Amino acid sequence: MTSTRSSDPTRVHRRRHDPDRRERIIGACLDVIAERGVAGTSHRHVAAAADVPLGSMTYHFTGMNELLHEAFARFSQSVIEQFDQRMAAAVDVDEAKQAVVAIITNDVFSTQRDLVLTHELYTLAARDPAYRDLTNAWMRSSRTALERHFDPTTARLIDALIEGLTIHRALDTAPQDRAVVLSAVERLMQTSR
């Protein structure tokens, strides 16, 4: 007679001792948000995407808001790190301008997924101060990275340009022209002198 339990003992053992489960849930949450939006994200969808029992959701997170905040904190931190690495690699202002172009056209927001996650975070931040803290930390970090090469006012303006052009990139059906983006950065720098 066969048992109704899993016949794969390694699967049962993995489920009982799964130290990466919380992190896997957070990653799966980002995938679900990218696919369904925040409004379509539920414990059930995330649990299925993470391949964990539904009960794991309430064990690891007090509710959906905590899970969403953790997921967006992870996402924003990864963008901050990529942005910082790109700007830190620039050795002079000309390389910094090229780094800004790369950030806008293909580097930090390299996938449609990243663009969607960014816009979902912006929407939450517009309504909820807890998410605004994440976007404010992101903006502060971006400006700090830009200030390695530009004065604070120019850094603030370039940061806004990056945000605006990435929104255009997310919504435009035509690819962004690197030369046009570079021209925008250079014009902005000329007017801020």
What is shown here, in short?
Residues 19-79 form the HTH tetR-type domain. With 193 residues, this protein is mainly α.
Shape: elongated
CATH class of the largest domain: Mainly Alpha
Q: Write down the overall mean pLDDT.
A: 87
Distance between the termini: 82 Å
Backbone CA Rg: 21 Å
The CATH homologous superfamily of the largest domain is called: Tetracycline Repressor, domain 2
- The count of strands amounts to 0
Percent in strands: under 5%
Q: Into how many domains do the coordinates divide? A: 2
Q: Which blocks of ≥5 consecutive residues have pLDDT under 50?
A: 1-6
Provide the CATH topology of the largest domain: Tetracycline Repressor, domain 2
Class computed from helices, strands and strand pairing? mainly alpha
GO molecular function, one term: DNA binding
Organism: Spinactinospora alkalitolerans
Keywords: DNA-binding, Transcription, Transcription regulation
DNA-binding region: 42-61
